[in-house]
Amino acid sequence: MIELTYLGHSSFLARIQNKNVLFDPFISPNPKASKIDPISIGADYILLSHGHEDHVADAESIAKRNNAMIVSNYEIAVWFAQKGVEKYHPMNIGGSKQFDFGRVKSVAAVHSSTLPDGASGGNPGGFVIEHAEGCFYYAGDTALTYDMKLIGEEFKVDFAIMPIGDNFTMGIMDAIKAADWVGTKRIIGMHYDTFPYIAIDQEAAKKAAAEAGKELILLNIGDSITL
């Protein structure tokens, strides 16, 4: 079992094997996450799916304050190293690495990736995390892609953290199909309602998921769930 805390937009803090693993921290610029104090966040690892500001905004400050390791693609990892982040681990699509909390596999995402200063953010991606008690998929920002079937063939996915806000990423119907392909019935929603472009009808999304035999979990910012 892991504890998962929602920090707004696409940012989650997962407690795995007594390590704090932070995903895509976009907190201080997000008015909807105003009750979350980034200074209070303890992280051992920071996993970044791609370079857009709404996924990396707080990564540098949190990494430096906690001496956390940034794990991302080569371009993003090196970009943060040039900003003085001392611990970083570059990966690329298809590669995997064993860390002390579990094994991370970098998987494909269909999106774009530019860092806040205009530098290339390399290829966007997602992560499959295998740990002692299970496995989950963090999709990052992505369209529905047939590559997701490969995840279902290789892993037994307990739950998937997926974008559902549409417009820039999958909407709920594509996320439901993605859940079928990766082989899970449980979707943790992300990348919705932060901006007008990605506003959704939450009850309609939950109903669509339920009718497809899925459980859509939409956490309030700051709330935690044990999975």
TrEMBL record:
Family annotation (InterPro entries): Metallo-B-lactamas, RibonucZ/Hydroxyglut_hydro, UPF0173, UPF0173_UPF0282_UlaG_hydrolase
Top-level taxon: Bacteria
Keyword flag Membrane: no
A Pfam family hit: Lactamase_B_3
UniProt keyword annotations, A-Z: Hydrolase
Domain Metallo-beta-lactamase: 8-191
One Gene Ontology molecular-function label: hydrolase activity
Glycosyltransferase among keywords: no
Family statement drawn from the similarity comment of this UniProt entry: Belongs to the UPF0173 family.
NCBIfam families registered for this protein in UniProt: PRK00685.1
Listed name of the protein: UPF0173 metal-dependent hydrolase C943_00159
